[in-house]
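Intended use. Records like the one below are meant for learning the mapping from a protein sequence to its folded structure. Do not use them to infer anything beyond what is encoded.
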Amino acid sequence: MTELPRTYAVKTYGCQMNVHDSERLSGLLEDAGYVRAPESAEDGDADVVVFNTCAVRENADNRLYGNLGRLAPMKTKRPGMQIAVGGCLAQKDRETIVNRAPWVDVVFGTHNIGKLPVLLERARVQEEAQVEIAESLEAFPSTLPTRRESAYAAWVSVSVGCNNTCTFCIVPALRGKEKDRRPGDVLAEVEALVGEGVSEITLLGQNVNAYGSDMGDREAFSKLLRACGPVEGLERVRFTSPHPRDFTDDVIAAMAETPNVMPQLHMPLQSGSDKVLRAMRRSYRQDRYLGIIEKVRAAIPDAAITTDIIVGFPGETEEDFEQTMHVVRQARFAQAFTFQYSKRPGTPAADMEDQIPKEVVQARYERLVALQEEISWEENKKQVGRTLDVMVAEGEGRKDGATHRLSGRAPDNRLVHFTKPDEPVRPGDVVTVDITYAAPHHLLAEGTPRGVRRTRAGDAWDKRNAPEAKKPAGVLLGLPGVGAPAPLPVAQGCGCD
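Structure written out for the chain above:
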């Protein structure tokens, strides 16, 4: 009797880099003979459960150990089940995880995700936990097998690590110094993806526009954007997340002059106060930040600009907070991902004096959210009456079934819900619609769509979702490989850019 393959489930927390890594982990496991557990399966139904963790928010530890505790009795009832913990929290806590949850089989870090299958097998044979944390990158993630979540959109990592020393952020300590890929390798991966049917890519880095710093070319990122322009079949190029310090005029020009680079920019602010920015060790000030926004808007009038903001950083006064509110009013972000300051052991900010009381942080946070909601709604209302080409997305409209609509992303990455056309439409296809209504977080096109353009990306989605018997053998990409971008920039973001 043939033994059934072991099943796996990967649970991801944190930023896009973790999503990107999780698709590598899935690819590695499938390359080793594991089969993905059905989406409907409970965690305890998989033979291997992998947690790819984040260490940025204060509740990261509690969330992980709560999930591990929930799995403990399930593992007792399921002989042979294995649990692995990787990612930033694993890199940080190492043996602590096994001490607090001795039923965990494998702990691995951010630098050695390629070792997961080997560590699982070693833990099974030796019947003891395997903890292996590398101090430097062993293999660039893009050289590993991958199981992409999307047939039509993909991440392409241009670098790993970060050279910044922001006092609130633990990521550089866990991801290491920035290491750039060669431009030719990045473009080869882009072209291979387009050949597979991908029509939208997102260039990904912890500090993406610092790309080229270890190659001695300060204009490497703008050159990379321009080089994506002639790639036939590549319709949309995005990138996340840049740093204001490294955001230069040549990047703005490349965005404006390269037709398939989308009119969208995610530019982390963190604080509008020069004093707080100095304490955060952010190497720009309010005037510099607003100057970038002004230049982008001059070159790309329809650009949708989003940001990250931290409220309640140690020493933040009411006057400091009002400076943040001022920048929000001036910049008029399409959306802001707002975070209450979270003390992280191991960061300089954790030991700073003047930690802000929770109730003060909460009150400021609510004021900021209310202001940004008002601005987001006003900015979205400006879209009413426009005709937009929307790339149909998969799983972004939770109410689509009940409302008989579809959902997708406009070129500037705004979420659009629209009336389902009479003709069949696949994720990856492009539908032209007229915007009729705006809410703070989405647009609505209630009329009959103007047209549908069936795309190679839609064909790729059809191919991936064909009945099993019609699928070609194998679902993995080897080298190169990518992951699928999240719907919005840094929606679960770490606020660390």
